[in-house]
Amino acid sequence: MSRDTARTAALKGARRCVGVPALGIGLSMVGFGALAADLGFSGLQALLATALIWGLPGQIAYVELAAAGAPLSVLIAGVAFANMRMLPMTVTGLPAVLGDRRPGFAGRLLLVQFMAVTAWTQMNADTPDLPKPARLPYYLGFVAVLYAAGLSGTLIGYAAGAVLPDPAMRIAVFMTPLYLLLLVAAARHPTNQAAVGLGAVLGIALFPLIGDASVLAAGLIGGTVAVAARRRADPRDG
Amino acid sequence: MADPLPLWPLLALAVAATFVWRFAGVVVAGRVDVEGRFFAWIAAVAYAMVAGLMARVILMPRGDIAPETLWPRALALAIGFAVWKLSGKRLTWGLGAGVGAFAALVAFGLA
User: Fold this and answer.
1) pLDDT of A235 strictly over 80
2) Helix (H, G, I), strand (E, B) or coil at A123
């Protein structure tokens, strides 16, 4: 594919991110930056947590548990649990954005450092309609804007967290999870639609009983039941 | 938290605890059949996991399960979802309606 086509695809991806995705991540990271400031972290530590973890639930688990002085085992398990969905998202998201490209192991590893829930859901929705050579530049354009928005949001939140009134903060923080929930609800495959419904119900119902492990249970049970039910309904369907 | 310096090793651990999943994902990604059943299952688990987490964060932010914070959030979520569905699954409509409803509830001191 020519340089121009790649550039066009990258710009298209970047433009797709400007608006709700970038605003959603920016605002949710504003919330994270404010939280990190509140808990006594330095601005650099908050920024690096966003830059290097790049997965909000794990970042929140990290600042909460580290500030609470939790044992190392609890901190590691808490963050790992909270960000465990990076595994299935990498497995399914990487082929979706690679298209016809085959970078080496280190290259693929670098690419997935920017794969988190917003990019994953958006790429699943968008890349099937793109020609294969356009998918990787589209992804890179999208995550470049997303990453910049996340880092900026963290710094803005860190600086302004103390200034913003609490109600404004609550509304801002409400937006991101709703955006992501609606985005996964729009899944094309009926199995995945069922998984979203089951996962949402289980995640809510189990949380008061088993806490953060409810995310894991909702994923494993919801996903497995959705696949099994679909297979029973239509045995030819994998 | 008097001294922020001891947090650096903890941050490294948190980064590693996330990196390990992405690393494992890259290792596994090359070995699964994209059209196969395992892949379909992995995708369904990821969808369910994200939905479960987001629903929980919307309704019970920071683990708060008190009914007085839960019901306005559930109402705003229901409005957003209904508008999204009725508008032919238009993301901006559903998001605008849900966030708007929640903002109204906050403005009236109900959320």
Assistant:
1) no
2) helix
